Each structure stands twice: as structure tokens, then as C-alpha cells.
From TrEMBL:
Identification of the protein by name: Nucleotide exchange factor SIL1
Entry similarity comment: Belongs to the SIL1 family.
Subunit text: Interacts with HSPA5.
Protein's gene: SIL1
UniProt keywords, alphabetically: Endoplasmic reticulum, Glycoprotein, Protein transport, Signal, Translocation, Transport
Function: Required for protein translocation and folding in the endoplasmic reticulum (ER). Functions as a nucleotide exchange factor for the ER lumenal chaperone HSPA5.
Recorded superkingdom: Eukaryota
GO molecular function: adenyl-nucleotide exchange factor activity
Signal peptide: none
Principal localisation: endoplasmic reticulum
Compartment(s) of residence: Endoplasmic reticulum lumen
Length: 472
């Protein structure tokens, strides 16, 4: 033990602590220098302070990107698949629609044809070793326009084919009119137009060999056709209208009745036919029938024809007043209640028609100056006042039917400005209005109890109240 102690004191390990500290520091500096020199001769990438796995991934991506760029700048060899699985080599282009899989055992990509019929024609013209030039500028704008034009032409051809097919289908469902006429002719059935039918009916009516029943049947059928404006005007082209007008001179009341029935339908809202009727003497003939003894049914139809002729035709209204038409209507109004209501309705229509025409001409100027001048020459209201229509209309208020009273009240309102002085002096009119006011107040109250928002009797009561207020 003593010898070992002496050895420690003789060697550096046996040096004192104060002498060993500087030596240790010097030794550490030498070792650090040697380690630095060794590192400078090594690959810096092996000792970079980065994640080795991330570095390898980035390197792989750079290589793949570079390979793709090289492939994009060059043409690719087209792989020709078959119906068997084959390995795909790097750099080979895969045809569109091929079936591709990854072989998990070998790690290689394999492909084959997906559908035999779909790609057979595309592969016939391809040869092994042929290159596919991937070029985005392979088609010019002119090529695209030409392809689009061909596409449109194909669509038009397809549309024309569809239209032709549809026409063929319709032809199968329907037959030509000439073919039908031929078939009907074989069956002794004749297809006639409206014009041909009207000509045939007029000939039957005008024939002396036709019986009364045949003439009436012809007029009855003719009325159905002349309701149409074009047919009524066609009646003028072959003189059919004048034949019917002359039928008003017949001694048979039924012929007069149905001839007036046809004329009323033809006159309605048809100015061309109205003008021809005035020139053909229809107005005079109608007034003569109304002024003479005739059956009630005949007078109804004749009055209907007269109303159709006068409405919206101011020249005819002038001629009506000149021929004493108001006197004829006055006798009708005093004859029967049915004719009286129709006469009052006609007068109301003529008064309001002229009033509205003059107002429309002042506000909108839509009425032609010639027609407006004709309306101004129709002195209807002065003629009504002169011929005593104020009293005649007031007396009609005693009719028992509500509809008749409504028409009379409307006409009294239209005549109010012209007949106001006469109405105020007519004590019977005031008593009648007061009586009707009480009656319709009770009926209006019943309407309110029934929950009706707008009542017929309340409207009549309003008209009566307005007249009473004006007469006070």
C-alpha cells in the first residue's frame, strides 16, 4: 500500500488537483479541434440537421418531377393492350379506356382491353412503335369551327328526320281531304264548305217549288252559319242577303219571323252587312212589320233585327228617326209588357252609346271624326222629349217584374237630364218611387240577413234613392 501511494505521487495521475486543471482544459481543446477537422472531410448532407426521411421524400419528388418534365417534352410510345394482362413499361402511354391494375406481388402496373368492341376500331389503325405526340395545339380554331358546323348539320339532319317521322305518323292517322271526298262521293255523301252550304240554303229558300216547311228549315239552318262574321259577309258575295231581306215582304208570318231572325244574326256587330242592309231597304221593311198587325213571335224577331241594325251604326239611327221609328216603338211599348221592356232597353242602349262615343272622342280621340259627326246628327234625346217618352217611360215603372223595373230605372236615369222638369211635376212618379223604396228596403234587409255582400235588391234600392234625391 505504501509503494502504491508513492507511484501516484510520481505519475501525472498523481499530480495535485491544482496542477491537473489547466492540463485538462488543454487536452479538451485539442480533442475538439481534431473532431472538427474530421467533420470537414465528411459529406455535409449526411450530418445535416434535418429529418432524413423528409429529405429522401423531397429528393424522390424532384426526380419524379424531372422525369415528368422529360416525358412532357418528348413523345410517348403507345402501349397496345390486348385481352390479357401485360406489364406496362416506364415511358409508355396508356390508351384511353384501358383497364389498369397494380400487381401486388410484383409491384408492376399491368393493363388490358376493357371492352372488345369499344376499342377494336381504334386499335386497328395503330401500329406498334407508333408515337403519340401530346400537343395541345394539335387543333386550330378553324378545325374546331368546322367540327362544330358539322355537329350542327348533323343535329339539323336528325331534327329533320324526326319531323319527317312525325309527319309520316300524322299521315297515318289522318287522310287527305281529296281522298275523303272521293270516298264520300262513292257513298253518295258530299262534303261542302260553309259557302256552298249557304248557297244551297238560299237557293232552297228562294225556290218557288220549295214548301213552307222547307223554306223555314232553310232559314233556320242559315241563321246558324251567319252568326260568324265571315260567313255573314260571304252572304253578300252571291246576293243571299238581299234574298233574305226580300223575304220580309212575304205574306207568311213564319217566313217574316225567320227571315228577321237570320238578319238579326247577320247584322250583329258587322258594319259591312249593316251598310248593305240599309242600302237594301231592310230598315223600312222592319218598321212596316212592327207598325202592322203581326203575331207576337214575329214582332219579337223583327224587333231583334231592328236592334242589331241600329246598334253602333249612327247613320241607321238617323234614318230610323227620319222614318218615324220612335212612333213605331211607342205603339209597341203600349202594346205588351214583353215588347215594352225590349223597347226601353233599346232606347237605353242608344242613349248611352251616343253619350259614351262623344266622351271617348273628347278624352281619347279614338272615335273617327266622320263617325263622331254622324253621332252628333242623331238628335235622339230631343225627339224623345218631344214625343212624350218621359211620361211613357215613367208609367212603365209600374210593371210587376223586377227585371222590367230594373230596365225602366236605368232608362229613367239616362233621361234624367232631359226629362228632369217633367219628372218633378209628375206626382204619380214620385208616389211610385216611394212605394218601390219601401218594398226594396225590405228585400234588401233580407239580403243582408242572408249574408250577401252585393245584393240585387240593394242595387235597385240605390237607383231609386238616387232618383228620389234628384227629384226633391
Amino acid at each position: 500500500m505504501e509503494a502504491y501511494s508513492r507511484f501516484l505521487t510520481m505519475t501525472p495521475w498523481g499530480l495535485s488537483l491544482s496542477r491537473m486543471t489547466p492540463l485538462g482544459m488543454l487536452l479538451g481543446l485539442l480533442m475538439a479541434s481534431c473532431f472538427t477537422i474530421c467533420l470537414s472531410h465528411q459529406n455535409p448532407k449526411e450530418f445535416a440537421l434535418t429529418n432524413p426521411e423528409k429529405s429522401r421524400t423531397k429528393e424522390t419528388e424532384r426526380k419524379e418531377t424531372k422525369a415528368k418534365e422529360e416525358l412532357d417534352t418528348e413523345v410517348l410510345e403507345v402501349f397496345h393492350p390486348t385481352h390479357e394482362w401485360q406489364a406496362l413499361q416506364p415511358g409508355q402511354a396508356v390508351p384511353v379506356g384501358s383497364h389498369v391494375r397494380l400487381n401486388l406481388q410484383t409491384g408492376a402496373r399491368e393493363l388490358k382491353l376493357q371492352y372488345k368492341d369499344k376499342f377494336q376500331n381504334n386499335l386497328k389503325g395503330s401500329k406498334k412503335g407508333k408515337r403519340l405526340d401530346i400537343n395541345t395545339n394539335a387543333y386550330t380554331s378553324q378545325d374546331l369551327k368546322s367540327a362544330l358546323a358539322k355537329l350542327k348539320e348533323g343535329a339539323e339532319k336528325e331534327s329533320s328526320k324526326e319531323d319527317k317521322a312525325r309527319q309520316d305518323e300524322v299521315k297515318q292517322l289522318f287522310r287527305p281531304i281529296e281522298e275523303l271526298k272521293k270516298d264520300f262521293a262513292e257513298l253518295n255523301v258530299v262534303i261542302e264548305t260553309d259557302m256552298q252550304i249557304m248557297v244551297r240554303l238560299i237557293n232552297k229558300f228562294n225556290s218557288s217549288s220549295s214548301s213552307l216547311e222547307e223554306k223555314i228549315a232553310a232559314l233556320f239552318d242559315l241563321e246558324y252559319y251567319v252568326h260568324q262574321m265571315d260567313n255573314a259577309q260571304d252572304l253578300l258575295s252571291f246576293g243571299g242577303l238581299q234574298v233574305v231581306i226580300n223575304g220580309l215582304n212575304s205574306t207568311e208570318p213564319l217566313v217574316k219571323e225567320y227571315a228577321a231572325f237570320v238578319l238579326g244574326a247577320a247584322f250583329s256587330s258587322n258594319p259591312k252587312v249593316q251598310v248593305e242592309a240599309i242600302e237594301g231597304g231592310a230598315l223600312q221593311k222592319l218598321l212596316v212589320i212592327l207598325a202592322t198587325e203581326q203575331p207576337l213571335a214575329t214582332k219579337k224577331k223583327v224587333l231583334f233585327a231592328l236592334c242589331s241594325l241600329l246598334r253602333h251604326f249612327p247613320y241607321a239611327q238617323q234614318q230610323f228617326l227620319k222614318l218615324g221609328g220612335l212612333q213605331v216603338l211607342r205603339s209597341l211599348a203600349q202594346d205588351t209588357e214583353v215588347l215594352a221592356v225590349r223597347v226601353v232597353t233599346l232606347l237605353y242602349d242608344l242613349i248611352t252609346e251616343k253619350m259614351f262615343a262623344e266622351e271617348a272622342a273628347e278624352l281619347t280621340r279614338e272615335t273617327s271624326p266622320e263617325k263622331l259627326q254622324q253621332y252628333r246628327q242623331v238628335h235622339l234625346l230631343p225627339s224623345l222629349l218631344e214625343q212624350g217618352w218621359c211620361a211613357i217611360t215613367a208609367n212603365l215603372l209600374a210593371l210587376p217584374e223586377h227585371n222590367a223595373r230594373e230596365k225602366v230605372l236605368q232608362t229613367l236615369g239616362a233621361l234624367l237630364a232631359t226629362c228632369l222638369d217633367h219628372f218633378r211635376q209628375d206626382a204619380q212618379l214620385s208616389r211610385t218611387l216611394a212605394s218601390l223604396q219601401v218594398e226594396y228596403q225590405a228585400l234588401a234587409a233580407l239580403e243582408l240577413q242572408d249574408g250577401e255582400d252585393v245584393g240585387y235588391f240593394r242595387e235597385l234600392l240605390g237607383s231609386i234613392n238616387s232618383l228620389l234625391q234628384e227629384l226633391r
